[in-house]
Predict the structure.
Amino acid sequence: MGAYHWWGKQGKTAEVMKHVKVSVTNKTTVTLDSGVNIADKDSVWVYDAADSNLNKEVTVESVSKNVITVTSTEATEVEVFYLVKVQDVYNINIKATNFPESICCIR
């Protein structure tokens, strides 16, 4: 078995990606839960939920907290990926030179 190393550092914040599947209203509006606060349109990615491979990206025009305005789309549901800041985090980095077969070679 190879060498495993871990180390970490404590920080104040980190960005974490979240994912939800939601409906589109009026062909241009996507509304997330009221507690969500997206920083800007560069922190969110929207895809047509009918495409299981997520190849059909829907263009984000603007963001206001939990409301995303997209270019007019025929999609009735979308997959939304967005970044949020998490407070008081501890980052752990793992370095491995190789992994056991049960991990690296799943069949």
Notes: Residues 13 and 62 are 24 Å apart (CA to CA). The longest strand covers residues 4-25. Residues 1-8 have pLDDT under 50 and may be disordered. DSSP finds one helix and seven strands in the chain.
